[in-house]
Structure formats: structure tokens, C-alpha cells
Input
Amino acid sequence: MITDKIKYLSTYEGIAPQIRLVSEFLERNDLDKFPVGKHFLNDSKCFVLVFEYNTKAESEALWEAHQKFLDVHLLASGEEKVFYSGIDDKETTSTVPYEPNDDYELFSSSGNSLKLSKDNFVLFFPQDVHKTGVNVDDRAVQVRKFVFKLEIL
Output
């Protein structure tokens, strides 16, 4: 898992060249006006999911991980708490087996958290179990979120 300021996102292209698609998207588009839904990124295997929702209590959020795609999460507005843990950590247990058609597996876990806001991003790899969309300071807020799904090369 990597988290940093969005202005430094392109420095991670050496780790995952697909990040260039995210950088190009951010340069070309107004995140406040971009339509909600699924949009492909110059490539049928990489896409962005645009959401608007209210954050929720931690108990309502699900731990998940993916095998086929890297996830880059960033917000155009609002803030949310993001939890993360290692897939091999002793407190992490699979609760729903991997679903290859939808590329997810669900888990129970405990882990650390960070606050995702408009200026930063978080990048999840297959070994990173994560739970997102959680209230910050027990207060629900509306967020506009972009989740970039980047096929693992």
C-alpha cells in the first residue's frame, strides 16, 4: 500500500507503469464535473469507477482485496477513513472466497487507518486488504470518489 499527495502520483510510475493512465486522466478532466459511473481509460482493461455517497460507520464497511487489478483511490470532495492490513497478517481471515469474475475476496481483519482527503491518494496492491468509505470522527459526509482499476501487468 502506498499513500502520498496526488501531486506526486506520477513518481510511482516506475513501480506500476499503468499509473500513467491515472496521471493523464487527472490532467485532462475536471473531477468535480466528471460523470458518475464506469469509464474506460484508453485501454479496455483499465478503468475508473466514479462514486458519490455518504461515508458510513466502520461496522458497515467491508474488508476486501483484489488479484487482477491495482486500486488507486482518490477523492474530489469530502473525506473518509481508510483501513488497511496485510493479506498475510495473522488477524486477516478470508470470509468470502475469491470471486474471479468481479475480482474480489472479502475478509475479516483489523489494521491501521488513514484519512483520505482531496489532496492525497492511496494505492492498493493484491496483498493489501482494505476497508474504505468510513466516517471520519464518527461523522458521515458526502464524498465524490474515484477508484482507478489498473490491470496488473
Notes: The helical segments are 19-28. The CA atoms of residues 63 and 131 lie 5 Å apart. The radius of gyration is 15 Å. The chain is about 5% helix and 50% strand.
